[in-house]
Amino acid sequence: MDVVEEGIYVAVRIGGPDRWPTNLGHRFLGNERLIFCAAPSYLAQRGTPTAVAGLADHDAVAYGGADDRAITWRIAQGAGPAERRSVQARVVVSHAEAQVAAVVAGFGIAQLATWLVDDALRDGRLVQILPDWATEGLPLHLVWLLSRQALPKVDGLLAYLGDTLRIR
Description:
Layout: H1 3-6, E1 10-14, E2 24-38, H2 40-46, E3 61-63, E4 72-75, E5 83-86, E6 91-93, H3 96-104, E7 110-113, H4 114-122, E8 127-129, E9 135-145, H5 152-164
Parallel strand pairs: 3-6
Antiparallel strand pairs: 1-9, 2-7, 2-8, 2-9, 4-5
């Protein structure tokens, strides 16, 4: 989405360019956290992997497009560097909320950003597995039109979102 073209005053952008357009302000909030998770019903039926190698014996629900690019998961243990590993997915979707819905429905295991699955984890529709293999994901940025920054509602929203969304 083009923030300028769409006339959006403030947005949270996942990822982002190496160089930002001069008409946009931006603030780094932190990196998303990626975790492996599954529905309790799936794990009751298929078992819970106790090591990352065990993921190969399970159905994967992955995010991807129709362009046949290889699907990968980021794998890192502890503070070690992350590597990308190819995944053979049972289900591939191109919409993050659809991916979460497929995992909640019991189609398999997925690697998902915590901000996307917090509610499902909290209410028990999903459980985290292999917590030692959680890893850093994409950067999150607060982005705004510089031409609108002086507006009180924009300035107040930037201050509020900058404090509340910052990943610690």
